[in-house]
Amino acid sequence: MADTDETKEQEKQEDSEQEKQEDSKAGKSGEKSSRGRFLQWIIMAAVVVLFIGAGFGLSRLVTGSGTTEIAGASEQDQSVQVEDLTVAGSAAGSQKTWYYHLEPVVANLDVPEATRYIRVSLTLEISSEVDEKKGVSFIDERKPILTSWLTVYLSSLSLEDIRGDKNLKRIQAQVLDTFNEKLFPDSKPQIKHILFKEFAVQ
Prior knowledge:
The chain is α+β, with helices and mostly antiparallel strands and about 200 residues long.
């Protein structure tokens, strides 16, 4: 009886030792597998970040240099064109200012309760420093930009914004500044005055 009890106890001890060994093995293998998965995620994240950084750097390198070159070339072309427009020193004094007539622009006013529109025809008074023939072709090329801006600007105005002498002078000044900025961005303004040929509200 005592022998059977001892053998049972030994078996229990052996079983418990085996269980402990299996548990420790399982724990170690679980730790190894979780460590392996964690390491895999870190490596994948690092690779993704590396690829994103490389793609961003490459795109900046390719597009950045191209845009700078294009922008530099267009600025250079524009400054050359403005210099080409000017008349020689002696001829500039003898020549008078000249006028460029813009086609009428029609735009809806910013009036919520009714449909009201404005029709504006402008005449640009150009400096005598600009040769008339060259200046006309120069402005003709850029006319779509001017009319587009003018349409958007007029559409932002309300009836109160266009009533009265002060408001009309303010509109003339705003148009003058913007047209000079769009046509002659890095040089002396060559448009002297903006004249209203037609200013009708309906």
